What we know:
There is one protein chain. Helices cover 87% and strands 0% of the residues. It is mainly alpha-helical. The chain has a domain at 2-85. It contains two helices and no strands.
Amino acid sequence: MHSRHRLLIMNKFFYLVLFLVFCSVANADSMTKVHNECIQLGFKDSTPELAKCKLELLVLNKKMNLEQKKLQASEAQAKAAEATARATEMNAAAAQSLASSSAWRNNQTLMKQGQRMMSGACTLGVDC
Length: 128
């Protein structure tokens, strides 16, 4: 049991390290793109203006990513609301169907009772 627990911890640690490596590679790639963009815009290497450009682009990219995630969340929320509305409509239709069936059964019962009274098979308030 102890070795299984140890293996589980090692497995989690491996995935954590893999995740961190992936994040650092993705971050390095993002930094390289930002650096190249600022150079293409005409900023000179190793200057305070280049550093400011990089910072502003990184902040802008973060804001754009955040807005994109907000948009995706809003779209998912809208889809969920549509699904809820459809389910509510279906529930209402089912309730209406049940109410109609119940009304029909009640009408049938009353008609049978009326026929029994008309034929003399029962008396209202006595055995009907």
